[in-house]
Amino acid sequence: xxxxxxxxxxxxxxxxxxxxxxxxxxxxxxxxxxxxxxxxxxxxxxxxxxxxxxxxxxxxxxxxxxxxxxxxxxxxxxxxxxxxxxxxxxxxxxxxxxxxxxxxxxxxxxxxxxxxxxxxxxxxxxxxxxxxxxxxxxxxxxxxxxxxxxxxxxxxxxxxxxxxxxxxxxxxxxxxxxxxxxxxxxxxxxxxxxxxxxxxxxxxxxxxxxxxxxxxxxxxxxxxxxxxxxxxxxxxxxxxxxxxxxxxxxxxxxxxxxxxxxxxxxxxxxxxxxxxxxxxxxxxxxxxxxxxxxxxxxxxxxxxxxxxxxxxxxxxxxxxxxxxxxxxxxxxxxxxxxxxxxxxxxxxxxxxxxxxxxxxxxxxxxxxxxxxxxxxxxxxxxxxxxxxxxxxxxxxxxxxxxxxxxxxxxxxxxxxxxx
Amino acid sequence: xxxxxxxxxxxxxxxxxxxxxxxxxxxxxxxxxxxxxxxxxxxxxxxxxxxxxxxxxxxxxxxxxxxxxxxxxxxxxxxxxxxxxxxxxxxxxxxxxxxxxxxxxxxxxxxxxxxxxxxxxxxxxxxxxxxxxxxxxxxxxxxxxxxxxxxxxxxxxxxxxxxxxxxxxxxxxxxxxxxxxxxxxxxxxxxxxxxxxxxxxxxxxxxxxxxxxxxxxxxxxxxxxxxxxxxxxxxxxxxxxxxxxxxxxxxxxxxxxxxxxxxxxxxxxxxxxxxxxxxxxxxxxxxxxxxxxxxxxxxxxxxxxxxxxxxxxxxxxxxxxxxxxxxxxxxxxxxxxxxxxxxxxxxxxxxxxxxxxxxxxxxxxxxxxxxxxxxxxxxxxxxxxxxxxxxxxxxxxxxxxxxxxxxxxxxxxxxxxxx
Lengths: 419, 419
Hints:
Chain A is of the alpha/beta class. Chain A contains 14 helices and 16 strands.
């Protein structure tokens, strides 16, 4: 393990013990101080960001990536506001639940506590540095951050800003530790830093998640990859279908909860597919259709023949695969075979079909007559989102502050011994 | 991956999809059938067990290990009763919680679902085969089991019994799959069987847990190792202290929630240690004391000088380490440095000391004035125990049926799209 990781990991671990004891008031005051510090240090942050932008331009980063990297006074203002919003969220730490009195008189409760040290490995967006630092702080966790190489100056300036805020609020700067080395080996070291890091959240593409799963000995929250389905059942309300499919596909095509595959029951395929395709064509969506769908859509829009791999692709773009199915069961089987268990929806007016779909599809979010775009911490009212988990352990779907906690059992006795 | 693991893993995965849809009635009927089948096949099971016992004797297994391995008609009867007790527990699957209506009218709930396929790697006790199979069945999970080599005949007969019961109840035998190869490489393959196994529970000693952490790419629940502390604070009630310390240490010394280290405040060490040592001496407990404690205990019992490693040892035997501390803070620091975060208790009549201990010690169970032996699924009223987790993710402390589940978000819309 590198010196940087072991010393920063230890600083985070030490800070985590302090953080776990803080009351909400102290944490919220620190968050407000961090928000103030972001604005106060605006010039330093923007100058650092300018270095990343210049380097990015020199290295030929796309305009889209440069835009993700770019910080502006308005974006910093919005960051500071987000930090204040986190201060205003309820603090999950200390909540007691599942309380009961046992027959022998022991009083038993579960009490929420922080996880400890959370390692986050992320890519180009520098706002993640602030997001994660402050969500961890609010939930009493220390954070070890490893951002993308192309945002290193911005991330360093932002992490220093957070640390300045922490210091001003009288908290240890160990609460937020940014790994500054851009050596790729550090990522693997973080994934195996048992004893220093308690949980790893990779925030990035499929390759990063796969690397984390294969290499981590620290528990990892995986997710992010969303091959999302909408199945249009045979009893349909056309007024709902077109808006929901269009919204799911085009409202923000580059994110994980955007629609990838549309499945349509054969009885309604001729009625449903042409208007859906026409509406999507207005948004320049390319449709990749298997033969039965292709036949119906012939001449209607930008339609090409779907290859087998199109049903296993997260497009992240204005592309959608389409398939006609014979039954609800076939739709569920298709989803079972191809879904990444992120978000899958049924559009139907048939009560039993809706119940069956909800019962049998076990994705992180299963929806009836709603846009897949709703699977999101903000939309679900969590107030914040750390990640979207598609794995079964610990948390599933959007993770907010509560999902950054664990619990201990508190046992209040009066001298009881076991018989 | 071996053929055995890939074919049995796939059978389990297919069965898991069927299991996830079953109602409680069907699962309970299958459990009752399994209980009946255990009794009906008693002769076959006992004959298989006899093979393991003979082999064990030939291989020089200790009497204690042979006893753990041994099945008798009475033990099978008790196993069958345990299975019926599991049938009578509430079914966690399908429970909805955190339900709310969002401002846009979406109805949102979390719904409990099974994890999927649970891999369990365990050591000599053949009853684990029945325990885990039936707890998994009740919670809608398929199980892939890998028991100890020395119990292979017993485990095979028990797994076949479960499968016979499943078949008689009309359920796929894939629900419970026993790996029969005793090749050690299979353990590593199981730990990396992503896509077939969703969660691994190692049930065994520290070496097994360490191996699992280092080698698994499938999420692992770790725990089991318990270096447990009792701290006797300066305001004491001697009538509670002796019974609790004795019970924690001697009631069943070979298990993870047994007491390992006794910390005593310096102000009461002279009053507390001698009667505690005398009471423990009656149970033939060896005390390993650091110098200050040793001085007080001189002549009182079987006392030896504690080495540094004694404070990092899970004794699993009638041995206890003892240390005198200057303050509650020193006790908490000691626990922070040496605890495996399994079970730690304070004995005190001082309200503020009790609260501080509970606030600052973040072990899976933190107790006041009670025996450490209570950290147990049965004692906590969970009805059953799959494992005791000491890691922060997913579940902590005793894990019952609910801890074998995850959840999905169910979103009931009326045509909503995201703005």
